[in-house]
Amino acid sequence: MNIELENHKLEKRLCREVGRAIVDYNMIEEGDRVMVCLSGGKDSYGLLDILLKLQQRAPVKFELIAVNLDQKQPGFPEHVLPEYLTKLGVRFHIENQDTYSIVKRVIPEGKTLCSLCSRLRRGILYRVADELGATKIALGHHRDDILQTLLLNLFFGAKLKGMPAKLVSDDGKHVVIRPLAYVPEKDLVRWAELRQFPIIPCTLCGSQENLQRKQVGNLLREWEKKYPGRVENMASALQNVVPSHLMDRALFPFETLRATGVPDDSGDKAFDDEPVAAPAAQPCAAPAPQGNPAAPRAVIPIATEAS
Ligand code: SF4
User: Where does [4Fe-4S] cluster bind (predicted)?
Assistant: First the structure.
């Protein structure tokens, strides 16, 4: 396929998927001031780039402010982001805070730095959001980050838990959004190459890369290569949850479940293997729990491909 056409299709797809996530989760509303956290990595550059495009054509008016926290890691090229953002003509703020020295001082040699480092970074970014009057904080996590987190929680955390597309921050004061929640990482890699973002390496702190996350990321990539569509199905599954078919008693009233005596064609066949349903393309109703056709059915919106 002609390269230009392919690039045009990639841009359309990125805008469509980001727009879809914004609408599905009501991420951005009229008058919002969105603080876009920019690390210098491909994902956050891509996020800002696509949000700027959507800002031009969105039916609602919103502001964007790019924010970078310069943590004073050795070798951080502090001129790169200001130069790039000035050229782009976007409003930005660089917050200079030497969290690197604090972390190095407090954490014993050889121990992982990330937990304290991210706690400090979070607190600083919340404060900056307050100072800038930001109503939303946008982060650059994408679909594959969310799936990696899901698998990590499943394998190591004994929890069925991914990464939310929208959440209220732990201080209760901020709404954090992830507009790239539907975007596969490979599209962001290609977009970064195409747009020639001035990428800043993420290894400056010298911290060990999270090995488990890396392994899970490789697993997802291998699956996608061997079984195209599997990763996409996993992402769709996050929007298609059937609490009656899991075992969390806090989510489904198993204790009070009673036979109703009323047959239900779409109910479960208790003695048969559960068939694996093909993903639906339309909003659908989760099946009612077996023997309880009167129970309300949760309507779960399933993502559809927009043109
Ligand atoms: S990788 Fe480095 S910058 Fe990132 S959280 Fe860990 S210590 Fe901080």
Answer: 114, 117, 205
In this model, does residue 260 exceed pLDDT 70? yes
Q: pTM score, two decimals? A: 0.86
User: At 141, phi and psi to the nearest 5?
Assistant: -70, 140
Nearest to 194 by CA among 1, 11, 2: 11
Beta strands (DSSP E) in the chain are 33-37, 63-70, 92-96, 136-138, 166-168, 175-177, 284-285, 299-300
Domain ranges, residue 139:
10-207
Q: Is residue 306 part of a domain?
A: no
Q: What is the CATH number of the domain that holds 86?
A: 3.40.50.620
Total domain count, the chain? 1
Q: Is the CB of residue 120 below 6 angstroms from any atom belonging to ligand 1?
A: no
Give per-residue pLDDT as tens, 110-129.
788 888 999 999 999 999 99
Atom of ligand 1 nearest to the CA of 114: 6
Which residue type occupies 128? V
User: Going by C-beta distance under 8 Å and a sequence separation of 6 or more, which residues neighbour residue 169?
Assistant: 122, 126, 137, 175, 176
C-beta 200 within 6 A of ligand 1: no
DSSP 254: G
Ligand 1 within 6 A of CB of 207: yes
The separation between CA 163 and the C-alpha centre of its own chain, rounded to angstroms, equals 6
Residue 292 lies in a domain: no
